[in-house]
């Protein structure tokens, strides 16, 4: 949801970021970078200033809508709130999920490469002065891939994995695991962070955090 409570979408098939208006119309926000089609936007967040940040790996170029890759990189992008030009903030190896720390000074991005020398990890980057700095490994999940994730008010990062949802403190230390019957793909909190919603395949789980 953006700052006006409109739903913003990553679309693999259309290779674009779109927004659902309150009257039901779907509005194209961006589909190209420097004249070339995006790969297949995968995950996004809306910062407090209204900027839309999203990852653009090539997963959707293979399915459901195979197509040629026009860009020679896999970027993490920022779409300014004033409608300015799309900005490529960093290039990563198959960037996937992303989230900010509570103060929005640290951006977390999962990298989920397919083959090659790279290993799946959650990467941290400092955000200040209009750029990302100090790229570093933040955490590695014990099983499977870190797909989607979210960050709570105290700065703990809750990441999907092959075993369930892994919980890391702000230093990247594993605090615990919320096991799921099969691989978790994403998770998010309700508005007051009393419940955690977890997706996996065709399943949606609900965890009551007050118990």
UniProtKB/TrEMBL annotation:
The keyword Hydrolase applies. The keyword Phosphoprotein does not apply. Keywords: Hydrolase. One of its GO terms (molecular function) is hydrolase activity. It comes from the Bacteria. InterPro entries: 6-blade_b-propeller_TolB-like, SGL, SMP-30/CGR1_Lactonase. SUPFAM superfamilies: Calcium-dependent phosphotriesterase (SSF63829). Residues 3-199 form the SMP-30/Gluconolactonase/LRE-like region domain. This is Gluconolactonase. It comes from Xanthomonas oryzae pv. oryzicola (strain BLS256).
């Amino acid at each position: 949801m953006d700052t006006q409570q409109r739903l913003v979408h990553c679309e693999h098939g259309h290779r674009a970021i779109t927004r659902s208006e309150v009257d039901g119309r779907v509005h194209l926000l961006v589909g190209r970078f420097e004249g070339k089609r995006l790969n297949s936007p995968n995950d996004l967040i809306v910062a407090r200033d209204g900027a839309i940040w999203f990852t653009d790996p090539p997963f959707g170029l293979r399915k459901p809508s195979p197509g040629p890759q026009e860009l020679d990189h896999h970027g993490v992008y920022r779409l300014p709130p004033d409608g300015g030009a799309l900005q490529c903030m960093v290039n990563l190896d198959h960037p996937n999920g992303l989230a900010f720390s509570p103060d929005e000074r640290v951006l977390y991005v999962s990298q989920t490469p397919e083959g090659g020398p790279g290993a799946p990890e959650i990467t941290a980057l400092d955000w200040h002065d209009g750029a990302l700095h100090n790229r570093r490994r933040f955490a590695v999940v014990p099983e499977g891939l870190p797909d989607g994730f979210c960050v709570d008010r105290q700065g703990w990062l809750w990441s999907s994995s092959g075993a369930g949802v892994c919980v890391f403190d702000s230093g990247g230390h594993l605090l615990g695991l919320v096991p799921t019957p099969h691989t978790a793909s994403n998770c998010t909190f309700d508005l007051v962070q009393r419940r955690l919603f977890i997706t996996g395949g065709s399943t949606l789980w609900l965890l009551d955090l007050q118990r």
